Amino acid sequence: MAIIRVEHLSKGYPGGRGVVDVGFEVDEGEIFGILGPNGAGKTTTVECIGGLRARDGGVVEVAGHDPADESPDLREVLGIQLQESLLPDKIRVGEALSLYASFYRNPFDIAELTERLGLGPQRDVAFSRLSGGQKQRLSVALALVGRPRVAILDELTTGLDPQARREVWGLLEDLRTTGVTLLLVSHFMEEAQRLCDRVAVIDSGRVVALGTPAELADRVGGAQVMTFVPSAPVDPGTIRALTAVSDTETRGEVVHVTGDAEMVADVLAALRAQGVSAGHLRVEQPTLDDAFVSLVTHGKDSHS
Ligand SMILES: Nc1ncnc2c1ncn2[C@@H]1O[C@H](COP(=O)(O)OP(=O)(O)OP(=O)(O)O)[C@@H](O)[C@H]1O
């Protein structure tokens, strides 16, 4: 069932940009990604969902509440991590978390949350003395401390090193099992591909694609590439003749075959028919990265 519903959301700024027409639904328990190039309207969208920005038009509902109504019940349901956390310089990590936890009825245990986010040693450190990555982790912790049903995380791992990023991903994967709904704004395709059940790609203030990462990758029709070392010489003509295959080439002892989603099964069947096995088999799938570049480039063409 949808816990977030957005229909025809619009928000203009004096300069004219913003969000033109955004719509999607997020089911309870989903991790939903919002992707798009700089200035696409991602932050504007999540700020309207979080009730931080007034929309011009359209419908937004979070757990049955309109964020524009500023209902106290919605505050209990929603946790928000913003791109920049604005805390007093002198507040310590533990104090900030205790303060935020006090706003909620059933908050996380602070010691456990700081450990999970790698902030245990910083509990008594003042905000101004934290590194950029530590500030980022604290802002994620502040969004999650109230055990929200819906958490909005904007650029949650920007500024984190690869190790810290993986720790935050681990925390989100754990959270998934608690049934929390996560709305992530991300620039990292790897992050979206790993974490998100579905994503919306926004470009120039509109949704240009919506689906699972795998569906979007498939939709761009990116060719798959398989490579293998045959156990005996194969006739390239028999491989090339398969309808799923668009190209084949032998480099040294390695055969490279390009084709569509059916290619791997068809090539392996053709080899088996010749009594040949495929050693060192590798298959490269099109990625969300490929889909993103293709969708956003096409979006630009159609809006210009
Ligand atoms: N307060 C504002 N006043 C005027 N224009 C704004 C304001 N906030 C955003 N914009 C413009 O609205 C558009 C969408 O901005 P938004 O921050 O939502 O995009 P974004 O996709 O989150 O970008 P980024 O990835 O760079 O954070 C941009 O063209 C931006 O310049």
TrEMBL record:
Gene3D superfamilies named in the record: P-loop containing nucleotide triphosphate hydrolases
InterPro entries given in the database record: AAA+_ATPase, ABC_transporter-like_ATP-bd, ABC_transporter-like_CS, ABC_transporter_ATP-binding, P-loop_NTPase
Subcellular location(s) of the protein: Cell membrane
Coiled-coil blocks: none
Cellular-component GO terms for this entry: plasma membrane
Single Gene Ontology BP annotation: response to antibiotic
Membrane topology qualifier: Peripheral membrane protein
Domain spans labelled ABC transporter: 4-229
Sorted UniProt keywords: Antibiotic resistance, ATP-binding, Nucleotide-binding, Transport
Taxonomic superkingdom: Bacteria
Single GO MF annotation: ATP hydrolysis activity
Protein name as it appears in the record: ABC transporter ATP-binding protein
